[in-house]
From TrEMBL:
InterPro entries xrefs: Diguanylate_Cyclase (IPR050469), GGDEF_dom (IPR000160), Nucleotide_cyclase (IPR029787), PAS (IPR000014), PAS-like_dom_sf (IPR035965), PAS_4 (IPR013656), Rev_trsase/Diguanyl_cyclase (IPR043128)
CDD domains: GGDEF, PAS
Enzyme class, broadest EC rank: transferase
Upper lineage: Bacteria, Pseudomonadati, Pseudomonadota, Betaproteobacteria, Burkholderiales
The protein's name: diguanylate cyclase
EC number(s) given by UniProt: 2.7.7.65
Annotated GO MF terms: diguanylate cyclase activity
A Pfam match: GGDEF
Catalysed reactions listed for this entry: 2 GTP = 3',3'-c-di-GMP + 2 diphosphate
Species of provenance: Pseudoduganella dura
Single GO BP term: cell adhesion involved in single-species biofilm formation
Domain of life: Bacteria
GO cellular component, one term: plasma membrane
Amino acid sequence: MQQPFRLPLLESVLEAVSAGVVVVDAAHRIVLWNKWMSRHSGCAAHKALGMDLFELLPELRGGRVEAAVTQALANNFSSLLSPTLNRAPFPLYSNPAAIARGERMQQAIAVTPLAFPAGQMGPDAGQAIPHCLIQLNDVSMAASREKLLREQTELLRMQTFSDGLTGIANRRAFDAAIDRETRRAKRNGTVLSLLMIDIDHFKPYNDHYGHQQGDGCLIQVSGALQALLQRSVDMLARYGGEEFAAILPDNDAGQALRMAEALHERVLKLAIPHAHAAGPLKQVTVSIGVATLLPGQPASPAALIRAADGALYAAKRQGRNRIMVAQPEETAP
Ligand SMILES: Nc1nc2c(ncn2[C@@H]2O[C@H](COP(=O)(O)OP(=O)(O)OP(=O)(O)O)[C@@H](O)[C@H]2O)c(=O)[nH]1
C-alpha cells in the first residue's frame, strides 16, 4: 500500500461520489461538505464549512434529522431515515429544472456516529472525539416509479372490482362481499338483507332504442339506485346484464322492504320512456326480489341469493314492476 497517496485518493473519492456526504462535529459544526452537496444545495463548501448545520439549514431543527444527529453524537446510535416518512428534509434539488419547479429531491438519509481519535498531545490525547456522518442519496427516480406502481395497482384494483359501464361494484366484488357479510352476520348474530333488482323488458328497450341508449339507461338506473344507498356498509353491484344486487347489512325484512320500495319509486321518478313497456306506464320500471337472513339462521350466501332471485322471478311472473319477498332456505350450519 502506498501510504502517501491514501489521503488525496480518499478526498477525490469523496468529491466524486454520487451521494451527499456531510460530517459535523459535536457542536454541529460542518467539517465536511462534499461536491455533491454543493451541487444539489447551491451552497458551496467554503460557505458551509465551519457553520452550524442547523443555522445553515434552520428547517432541519426539531425534525428527524436533528433527532438522529443528536442520537449519533450523544448515544452513538445510527439511524436510517425512511424516505416514506422523511421525503425531502434537506433543501436539495436534482437539477436546475427541479429548482425552477420548486421540486425537492426525494432523499434516503443515513446518520452514523464517527469517533476521531484526538491527537497525540494535550489533555484529550488518545480520546475519541464524537462526530457524525450524514449520507444522503437521491431516491427521486425510485420514489416516482413507486408512485406510478401504486397508482397502477390502484387502477387495476378498481378495474378488477368495478363495472366498466356503470362504475358500481361488479360481480366479483359482489361475490366477495356477500360471502364476507354472511359470515359477519352469522358471527355477530345480526340480520342481513339482499335485494335483486332487474330492469323490466330490457330486451325490447335495447331493440327499440339501440344498444347505446340501453347502456345509457343502465347508467341512469344504477346511478339512481346508488344515490339511495347512503350507508357505507351497503353495496350496490351489477350482478349481470340488466340485473343489480343490493347488500344491506343489519337491515331486517321490514327495513329491506322499505328500501326496495324507495328504490322502485326512485326508478319510476326517472321517467325514462320505454315504448314497449307492458302495461299503461310507458316507461322503464324494475322488479325487485327481497330476502333476509335472520340472526342465527343457518343459511349460506348461495341460499340467500337463491331466495332473493326466486322472489325476483316471482315478481316477473306476476306482471313485473313490483316487489316480492322470500325467505332463504336453511342449510346445514
Ligand atoms: N345495452 C346493454 N344491454 C345489455 C347489457 N347487458 C345485457 N343487456 C341486454 O339486456 C337484455 C336482457 O334481456 P332479457 O334477459 O331477455 O330480459 P328482459 O327483456 O329485461 O325481460 P324481463 O327481465 O323478463 O323483464 C338483453 O337484450 C341483453 O342484450 C349491456 O351492458 N348494455
